[in-house]
Amino acid sequence: MKAILFASDATPLQIAAVKRALMTDGAAGITPLEGDRAVFLVSDPADEIRLEAYSSMPGVEGVMRHEDKNLRVAHDTPPVDIESGIEGLTMIAGPCGIESEEQVSTVYEHLAKEGLRFVRGGAFKPRTSPHDFQGQGKSGLVMSYEIARDYGLQLVSEVVDPRDVEVAARYISMIQIGTRNMQNYPLLKEAGRSGLPVLLKRGMSATVEEWIGAAEHTLVAGAATVIFCERGIRTFESITRNTLDVLGAAALKEKTKLPVIIDPSHAAGRRSLVVQGALAGLAAGLDGTIVEVHHDPASARSDAAQALPLADFTRLMQLARNVRAAIHEVYVY
Predict the structure, then answer these.
(1) What domains are there in the chain, each with its CATH number?
(2) Cα separation of 194 and 315, whole Å?
(3) Confidence bin at 34 (pLDDT 50/70/90)
(4) Spatial separation of the C-alpha atoms in residues 78 and 238, rounded to whole Å
């Protein structure tokens, strides 16, 4: 938040002139405070307004800026290459849960042919019901790592327990933090200490600022970088599994140089909407997507309804390249 303090003898015309200049420069909001002297609180999430230019305007006594606590998120740029599948984007795909060698090998072979570099595969599955498939743990992780390595792929997998981070880091190239653990601070810090990139999914009821704070925890702890992942938030709407907050993710990009990708699978809850959700994110200028893909979705042991068949993922990649080409001149990547 930025503030402009007016002199006690500032005239209404001088105050109005400053307000017009702020609006012209792109202020997202201007809140006047009444007291002994006028004060403007200025919302500038894109950080486009240079306060120094206002300090010399008639009627202005001083300017102030509230320093952002989350300096790493605000100023870091990715020091590692996370491009995957499409130039300038991070496309990640794979099964929700690791089930068998046949499943993993079939899916990863197809994804390798599509040019992906990062693939997903869940070995530790936090499920709403204790009776649902919980994943194969370390054995599934090792198996998926070996298959991914054979196809020249790198594994992205969720960790749910801080005690599993050290072991998981031997086999995965990116640690995924799921929505239920976005504010599990011991896990965030342990994931950061691994030194790996962290894919941080937004909590289902978290604000963008809370999401940023969680990322700061991992970066301060030592994470190579953070990839923000919008996966839908919980709202009153029930026609989809979650509400995909594309504008919230786009607003986050105004606050950070770190990548922001989208997960349409968990937002849609059914495969008929996954492609549209992914393309919406890319059209909004986001940096990629992560989707669930299965060679036989009907047999999937978790999230079967939202898993894309292999042919549908190929179609998504073709459409994503078209969208990327169409908006390349619109957004600065």
Answers:
(1) 2-66 (3.30.70), 72-327 (3.20.20.70)
(2) 36
(3) low
(4) 36
Rounded-to-integer distance, Cα 125 and Cα 134, Å: 5
CB-based burial, 178-191: b 16+ in 10 Å, e otherwise = bbebbbbeebbbbb
Residue 93 β-bridge partners: 119, 291
Contact 268, 88 (CB under 8 A): no
User: Any residues with CB less than 8 A from the CB of 325 and at least 6 apart, and which?
Assistant: none
CA dist 264 and 19 (Å) reads 40
What burial class does residue 139 get, using C-beta atoms within 10 Å of its C-beta: 0-12 exposed, 13-18 middle, 19+ buried? exposed
Render pLDDT for 70-109 as a digit per residue (tens, 0 to 9): 878 988 888 889 999 999 999 999 998 888 899 999 999 9
Condensed to tens digits (0 to 9), the pLDDT of residues 37-53 reads 788 888 887 788 888 88
Q: Report the alpha-carbon distance of residue 213 to residue 73 in Å, rounded.
A: 8
pTM as predicted? 0.80
Is residue 101 within 8 Å of 295, Cβ to Cβ? no
Question: What values do phi and psi take at 226, rounded to 5?
Answer: -120, 135
Q: Residue 245 and residue 229: Cα distance in Å, rounded?
A: 11
